[in-house]
Write a structure and sequence with these properties.
single chain; 377 residues; alpha/beta; Rossmann fold; UDP-galactose 4-epimerase, domain 1; 2 domains; seven-stranded parallel sheet; four-stranded mixed sheet; globular; NADP; NADP+ binding; EC 4.2.1.47
């Protein structure tokens, strides 16, 4: 029988990849989207457009519903109507720096939103039927207590985002132990892709590299270049989410590559991909990245982009996922990840340039036609 899955946060990076993955597995996928006055389904266009090569077959099993995890009644109604076999809770206010500006909202979505889903499954009597995946985060570790971090490493969150997610983690574990639910946490370390939001540091870097290379931007401003992160490819990570819910026993897993790189390394690789070599001069907030070829300052430090409480390093140990789930965390290497993102953004910036020229040309022609009409009149 066809399995049914609910994916919250389906319009996001992970949600769109997961929806595609589940559809390829033959699932009936129900995505939850928030009502917005602006278009927010760009990442789902391949699934919604019948002209795409494989979308016609897939989109018969792909359904979108308006909803919000902060609305308990709405979520309970949707779960009751859909009767899912699996729920993937990927909905979140996921920007760490923004969580310092919006701590209450972050708590409502990332913490209470998780509770609303678990409680809905419980009160609807679906505990034996529905398996729940909670998207947890490496930000739980924050001020790390050991390196690398495993499923047993103590938590020490350093942001409202991490603190909200720690509630989501523990309430998931509590419902598993209290109500015998198949409710699990995937502790995802940093995972990026060409679908990452443009305000996140990795996408900010790759877009800037593309724009600077094509003369559309002068400088890139960043915060802490020395932050160390375990970066993987989001498209690989959604496979592990699915594997966690297929495991015989409900267990929590670290999802990571086991490799750590600095923001500085990411910057250097991204610019090298567009044939710009950088050299670094200065120290601290006065450090600058200079083009070796032109001598121009391309990268500058902006103190406002530092977090109030920094997380200096995160490095996950994926041994459990590799051993019990057979998952390959380095299917896409760090270098390949940066290359994929930069190449995508080079094409994006190039297309934007062509579109602007066509628009400007059309405006100019309309203006000329209007003048000619006045002359002829």
């Amino acid at each position: 029988m066809t399995k049914r899955a609910i994916v919250t946060g389906v319009t996001g990076q992970d949600g769109s990849y997961l929806a595609e993955f589940l559809l390829e597995k033959g699932y009936e996928v129900h995505g939850i989207i928030r009502r917005s006055s602006s278009y927010n389904q760009e990442r789902l266009e391949d699934l919604l457009t019948e002209e795409e090569s494989n979308a016609l077959e897939n989109n018969r099993n792909f359904h979108l519903h308006y909803g919000d995890v902060t609305d308990a009644q709405n979520i309970t109604r949707l779960i009751s109507e859909i009767q899912p076999d699996e729920i993937y809770n990927l909905a979140a206010q996921s920007h760490v720096r923004v969580s310092f500006d919006m701590p209450g909202y972050t708590l409502d979505v990332d913490g209470k939103g998780t509770l609303n889903i678990l409680e809905a499954v419980r009160i609807l009597g679906l505990s034996d039927k529905t398996r729940v995946y909670q998207a947890s985060t490496s930000e739980l570790y924050g001020k790390v207590q050991e390196v690398p971090q495993t499923e047993n490493t103590p938590f020490y969150p350093r942001s409202p985002y991490g603190a909200a997610k720690i509630y989501g983690y523990w309430i998931t574990k509590n419902y598993r132990e209290s109500y015998n639910m198949f409710a699990v946490n995937g502790i995802l370390f940093n995972h990026e892709s060409e679908r990452r939001g443009e305000t996140f540091v990795t996408r900010k870097i790759t877009l800037a590299a593309a724009r600077i290379a094509q003369g559309k931007q002068n400088k890139l401003k960043l915060g802490n270049l020395d932050s160390l992160r375990d970066w993987g490819y989001a498209k690989d990570y959604v496979e592990c989410m699915w594997l966690i819910l297929q495991h015989e026993e409900p267990e929590d897993f670290v999802i990571a590559t086991g490799e750590m790189h600095s923001v500085r390394e990411f910057v250097e690789l991204a610019f090298k991909q567009v044939n710009i070599d950088l050299k670094w001069v200065g120290e601290g907030i006065n450090e600058k990245g200079i083009s070796v070829k032109t001598g121009e300052v391309i990268v500058e430090i902006d103190p406002q982009l530092f977090r109030p409480a920094e997380v200096e390093q995160l490095l996950g140990n994926p041994t459990k996922a590799k051993t019990l789930l057979g998952w390959n965390p380095t299917k896409t290497s760090f270098e390949q990840l940066v290359s994929v993102m930069v190449n995508y953004d080079m094409n994006k910036v190039s297309q934007e340039t062509v579109s602007k020229k066509m628009f400007d040309g059309a405006v100019g022609m309309n203006h000329l036609n209007a003048n000619n009409s006045r002359v002829l009149a």
